[in-house]
């Protein structure tokens, strides 16, 4: 993995899925004010030596083989001004729904976790007060189903929802270099919750249609009365 | 006896403004609802475990049904009038979305949301546009502009509303409530009071002053031949009177429109235009993100577009109604289309966020201008009576290009990896369409002026009666419909009555 960063202070997240060799490069823009800066590479707060350098770029090579190697690496260019860039090396994050998932009793709930790189394993668990209860689909096949849509995407289905199923769920992706977690909130509502606004809107429609019809009948009657008078005047 | 109290010509006001409001709501739902549904797609995609394109089909089916069912809508309006059709359409939409709330497969969604709701929206769109033509003449461009403004207003309302419903009720609850909201189309339909006979068939080249002298024709596709003898009443329904079997076919869907020069020009120009019309909107936000702009700013671009659009439509209506523009409204329309195209062609030059904001504003303006006049120009060309059939035929023809536009744009983007070719294609297509319409309408105006002059010299009637400015051959073709009016013209008594009714 080679990443180039130019210009002013920047941050970049680098996802490392499995042990790999990583090259980080800081490249200085030709038009920058900084000329011949002094460059230091740091892991966290301690200085490390750089592996190679050219006229305007400085590189370090890292071998990431266990969790301790995952940290924030920064290159600092000192001259008239100080410029720095930081690379945050970490396990891949899980993408999933941020907002609470709204479902209904008797319905199906779906939670999908997605990562950039495939983990070794996926686990799902539910928060029961303070403890985490693991979800085992084989023990309760009628209730839970875990589907592996692809190596990167994992999916939990909860069937026949009840009110007790509301709560916090966790999806965990296990990598060689560490774990990544994601939180889901599930809300199970009863069917009557949306029914109230539904009935309100239907009532509004009925009232409006009735009003318009009545108004029309009223003005029609008025019009007919006026015409009858008119015809009488004509006959005269 | 004076009949000044009765106004057999279009009212151009009064209850008409309530009708405009109803059309505003109806048209707004028809155009904005499919776009507003996009918020739910990600969740539904996850729920059913399908791919994005399978979900996109819901939108496509809905759009295709809304446009494709145009002729059916026209036939129903010709037969039953606008009001029952719109109310039935509203009910259908409601039923469609309510049943969609209980769907358990993507196929059921295709049917409930795609077909049923789509068909309901089609039954909303056409009649709303048609009834404006029945209620307005002098102020028709304004009425059209105001009614078409329903689309951006509804979109701006539906987008946050849908998000709110989704956050609180999930997609199923939202569909249920949206079904109820769609029932409001029935309210809009209730406002569409059927209007009596005597809606004038008018044409282009009529100035504001000239319109006052215009004498209205009594029939609508020959349905009310005998209405010349009846005193038209304010709230009489449109389809009373004998129907000749002769006119029955034409009465349902007027295929003779395909021989109408103006109609053909409009059809070809519009079909071409729609190839490049919607794609830029679809790809504006992705393009913005592609150039590095964050999601919220990209969404803001669309909001700018919608707000400018909202203002542009009624404004265009007012401008188009002015005495300088109305006789040359077709040129104004072609200009608007070409302006749209020019915007797209210039878009690749805008690379910064400010540039894109400028582009969005101009795009919103151009988009609003075209939409406001979309149906007005068709009404102007074929007249209010034949508009019912015309709009049905036009929408089914546009259906194909509307659906093709964004996918073609998508292919261009994927092949070249660059958005600029899509903008160039859209811009080029629209400039071409605009130029085509401009040239052909220039030709059409010339021909109409020539035919008008020919007919005037042949007229021996002492009163200057201005009838529809049709082409010579079209006039003969329609003589079956025009026939009954010519007879009363020759009779003195009827002629006087006709003249009085026309003022």
TrEMBL record, chain A:
Family annotation (Pfam families): Ig_3
| Keywords noted in UniProt | Disulfide bond, Repeat
Q: Which GO terms describe its cellular component?
A: membrane
**Which ranges carry the Ig-like domain?**
17-86, 92-190
The superkingdom listed in its UniProt entry is Eukaryota
Q: Name one GO biological process term.
A: cell-cell adhesion
Q: What is this protein called?
A: EMB protein
Primary gene name = Emb
Automatic annotation (TrEMBL), chain B:
Q: Which UniProt keywords apply?
A: Cell membrane, Membrane, Symport, Transmembrane, Transmembrane helix, Transport
Q: Does the keyword Transcription regulation apply?
A: no
| Localization of this protein | Basolateral cell membrane
List residues traversing the bilayer: 15-34, 55-76, 88-121, 142-161, 173-192, 263-284, 296-312, 332-351, 357-375, 387-409, 421-443
Record membrane topology? Multi-pass membrane protein
Could you confirm whether the keyword Thylakoid appears in this record?
no
Q: What is its main location?
A: membrane
Stretches the record annotates as Disordered: 452-503
> In which domain of life is the source organism classified?
Eukaryota
Residues annotated as domain Major facilitator superfamily (MFS) profile: 16-445
Molecular function via GO: monocarboxylic acid transmembrane transporter activity; symporter activity
Q: Name one GO cellular component term.
A: basolateral plasma membrane
InterPro entries of this UniProt entry? MCT, MFS, MFS_dom, MFS_trans_sf, Proton-linked_MCT
Question: Which Pfam families does the record cross-reference, listed alphabetically?
Answer: MFS_1
Recorded catalytic reaction(s): these are: 3-methyl-2-oxobutanoate(out) + H(+)(out) = 3-methyl-2-oxobutanoate(in) + H(+)(in); 4-methyl-2-oxopentanoate(out) + H(+)(out) = 4-methyl-2-oxopentanoate(in) + H(+)(in)
- Which family does the similarity line name? Belongs to the major facilitator superfamily. Monocarboxylate porter (TC 2.A.1.13) family.
Official protein name in the record: MOT2 protein
């Amino acid at each position: 993995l080679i990443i180039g960063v130019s210009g002013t202070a920047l941050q970049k997240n680098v996802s490392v899925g499995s042990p790999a060799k990583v090259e980080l490069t800081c490249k200085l823009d030709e038009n920058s004010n900084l000329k011949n800066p002094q460059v230091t590479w740091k892991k966290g707060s301690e200085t490390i030596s750089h592996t190679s350098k050219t006229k305007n770029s400085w590189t370090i090579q890292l071998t990431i083989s266990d969790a301790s190697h995952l940290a924030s690496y920064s290159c600092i260019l000192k001259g008239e001004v100080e410029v720095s860039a930081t690379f945050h090396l970490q396990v891949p994050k899980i993408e999933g729904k941020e907002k609470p998932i709204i479902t209904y009793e008797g319905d199906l709930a779906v939670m999908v976790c997605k990562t950039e790189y495939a983990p070794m394993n996926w686990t799902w668990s539910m928060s029961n007060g303070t403890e985490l209860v693991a979800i085992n689909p084989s023990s309760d096949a009628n209730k839970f189903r875990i589907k592996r849509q692809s190596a990167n995407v994992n999916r939990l289905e909860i069937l026949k929802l009840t009110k007790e199923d509301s709560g916090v769920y966790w999806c965990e992706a296990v990598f060689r270099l560490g774990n990544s977690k994601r939180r889901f909130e599930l809300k199970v509502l009863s069917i009557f919750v949306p029914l109230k606004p539904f009935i309100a809107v239907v009532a509004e429609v009925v009232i409006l249609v009735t009003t318009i019809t009545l108004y029309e009948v009223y003005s029609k009657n008025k019009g007919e009365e006026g015409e009858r008078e008119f015809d009488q005047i004509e006959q005269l | 006896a004076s009949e000044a109290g009765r106004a057999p010509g279009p009212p151009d006001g009064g209850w008409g403004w309530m009708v405009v409001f109803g059309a505003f709501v109806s048209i707004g739902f028809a155009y904005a609802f499919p776009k507003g549904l996009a918020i739910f797609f990600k969740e539904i995609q996850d729920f059913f475990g399908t791919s994005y394109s399978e979900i996109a089909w819901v939108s496509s089916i809905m759009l295709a049904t809304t446009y494709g069912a145009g002729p059916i809508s026209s036939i129903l309006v010709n037969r039953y009038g606008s009001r029952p059709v719109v109310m039935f359409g509203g009910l259908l939409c409601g039923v469609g979305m309510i049943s969609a709330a209980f769907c358990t497969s993507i196929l059921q969604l295709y049917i409930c949301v795609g077909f049923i709701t789509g068909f309901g929206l089609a039954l909303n769109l056409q009649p709303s546009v048609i009834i404006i033509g029945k209620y307005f003449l002098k102020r028709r461009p304004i009425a059209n502009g105001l009614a078409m403004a329903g689309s951006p207003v509804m979109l701006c309302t539906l987008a946050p509303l849908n998000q709110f419903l989704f956050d609180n009720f999930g997609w199923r609850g939202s569909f249920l409530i949206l079904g109820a909201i769609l029932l409001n189309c029935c309210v809009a339909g209730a406002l569409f009071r059927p209007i009596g006979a005597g809606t004038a068939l008018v044409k282009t080249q009529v100035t504001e002053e000239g319109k006052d002298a215009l004498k209205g024709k009594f029939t609508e596709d020959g349905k009310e031949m005998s209405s010349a003898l009846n005193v038209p009443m304010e709230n009489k329904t449109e389809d009373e009177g004998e129907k000749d079997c002769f006119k029955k076919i034409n009465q349902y869907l007027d295929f003779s429109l395909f021989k109408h020069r103006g109609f053909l020009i409009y059809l070809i120009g519009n079909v071409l235009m729609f190839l490049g019309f919607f794609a830029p909107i679809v790809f504006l936000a992705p393009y913005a993100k592609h150039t590095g702009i964050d999601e919220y700013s990209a969404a803001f671009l669309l909001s700018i577009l919608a707000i400018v659009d909202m203002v542009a439509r009624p404004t265009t209506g007012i401008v188009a109604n002015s005495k300088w523009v109305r006789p040359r409204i077709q040129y104004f329309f072609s200009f608007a289309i070409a302006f749209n195209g020019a915007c797209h062609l210039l878009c690749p030059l805008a690379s910064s966020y400010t540039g894109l904001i400028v582009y969005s504003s101009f795009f919103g303006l151009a988009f609003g201008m075209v939409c406001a006049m979309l149906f007005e120009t068709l009404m102007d060309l074929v007249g209010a009576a034949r508009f019912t059939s015309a709009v049905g035929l036009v929408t089914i023809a546009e259906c194909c290009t509307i659906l093709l536009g964004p996918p073609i744009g998508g292919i261009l983007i994927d092949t070249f990896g660059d958005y600029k070719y899509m903008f160039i294609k859209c811009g080029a297509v629209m400039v071409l369409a605009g130029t085509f319409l401009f040239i052909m309408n220039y030709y059409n105006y010339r021909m109409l002026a020539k035919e008008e002059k020919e007919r005037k010299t042949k007229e021996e009637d002492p009163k200057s009666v201005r009838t529809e400015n049709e082409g010579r051959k079209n006039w003969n073709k329609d003589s079956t419909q025009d026939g009954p009016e010519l007879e009363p013209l020759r009779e003195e008594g009827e002629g006087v009555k006709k003249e009085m009714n026309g003022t």
